[in-house]
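Many introductory courses stop at the sequence. We go one step further.
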Amino acid sequence: MQVMYFAWVRERIGLPREVVETSASTVAQLVDELRAREARYEAAFEDVTALRVALDQELADFDASLEGVQEVAFFPPMTGG
């Protein structure tokens, strides 16, 4: 699946997107797999309460299923102005 990173998540990981092979069945499990990769992922996902996630461009929760999902995007909350 395609995993996309925005704002400071992208800055910490150093990539805007990547293709990830995963056995995770939920977003939370995917985050655990990513954290285990190396320190830059651990830093990006150290506080998931500061993150939002979208599955195929629809906002979702971290306990959401990844079944059939093509794209996961991680980003900080947006504020209007």
